[in-house]
Write a structure and sequence with these properties.
CATH class: Alpha Beta
Oligomer: single chain
Shape: globular
CATH topology: Rossmann fold
CATH architecture: 3-Layer(aba) Sandwich
Radius of gyration: 19 Å
Strand order of the largest sheet: 7-3-6-2-1-8-9
Bound molecules: S-adenosylmethionine
Structural class: alpha/beta
Helix content: 25-40%
Order of helices and strands: EHEHEEEEHEHHEHEH
Largest sheet: 7 strands, mixed
Length: 249
């Protein structure tokens, strides 16, 4: 990243290693918490330098029952570097009971066996900007009103049946048959997650997008699907990088 020009990037979507002892191919995910946070501070400063003042930086991070403070510590570590403009919850799985009492479950999660902790069905997406005043395209991810009478009742709808989705994003992992063949990486986010970040920032406002922790290239595929002109990704593991290149064709 040190080689990239100042203020040359419109959008950063990334998920760094979480320091939760994930078994990556090359990277060792076991630092002590303070040196990990200092390292995050270092690359985040580079993200700030390369990001335009009109840009957005979406940072996906989860936690573990043993480290519930991790995402919050990360935000505190970066509070002098960026303004936290939005906090989004990536919901991987949810169970909903409808008015008739029918219970339905959606999505996937890794069940844990514990007498103390709940299954972990969500992660964070922190939306950082330089000023806290970057306009976003809320309706690009809009959903129809449940109660249609709101369309005429509220003037701001301008007669359109589309409202802001809000900050809870249900994005399930795709069902796969073979992890080795279809998802050869231990910690990915779905393409759709990055795609929604591009759309929320505003597709037409993204000329150049960056992912400093590319993995197997889900953010690159999102950029491709959204028609982003230029994408830059960094990955230290040649095997993951080769898979990313193969997937974007
Ligand atoms: C959480 S994963 C990202 C996964 C990615 N979002 C995806 O969906 O495939 C973090 C990645 O960062 C890579 N990594 C760790 N240190 C790095 C560094 N200094 N430069 C570039 N990549 C690095 C790891 O090899 C790992 O693939």
């Amino acid at each position: 990243m040190a080689e990239l020009a100042d203020a040359s990037i419109d959008l950063v979507v990334t998920s760094p290693p979480y320091n939760l002892r994930i078994e990556y191919g090359k990277y060792s995910d076991r630092q002590d918490r303070q040196s990990y946070l200092k390292w995050c501070q270092k690359w985040a400063a580079q993200v700030r330098r390369v990001l335009k003042s009109s840009g957005s930086f979406f940072l996906n991070i989860g936690s573990a029952p043993s480290s519930p403070m991790l995402p919050h510590e990360m935000v505190l570590e970066l509070r002098d570097t960026f303004v936290l403009q939005n906090v989004i919850h990536w919901i991987k799985s949810i169970t909903i009971e409808d008015r008739e009492g029918d219970v339905r479950s959606y999505g996937h999660f890794k069940p844990i066996s514990s007498k103390r902790f709940l299954n972990d069905c969500h992660e964070y997406i922190f939306h950082f900007t330089k000023t806290g005043r970057v306009e976003i395209d809320r309706l690009a991810l809009g959903v129809p009103y449940q109660d249609k009478s709101n369309i005429s009742r509220w003037r701001h709808t301008r007669g359109s049946d589309l409202r802001c989705r809000g900050n809870t994003w249900f994005i399930p992992y795709e069902t796969i048959q073979s992890r080795v063949k279809e998802r050869p990486h231990p910690a990915t986010f779905p393409v759709q997650l990055a795609e929604w970040c591009v759309k929320l920032h505003g597709v037409s406002r993204v000329q150049t997008m960056l992912d400093p922790f590319l993995g197997i290239g889900n953010s690159a595929i999102a950029a491709q699907r959204c028609g982003v002109k230029k994408f830059i990704g960094f990955e230290i593991d040649e095997t993951y990088l080769a898979e990313a290149k193969r997937r974007i064709g």
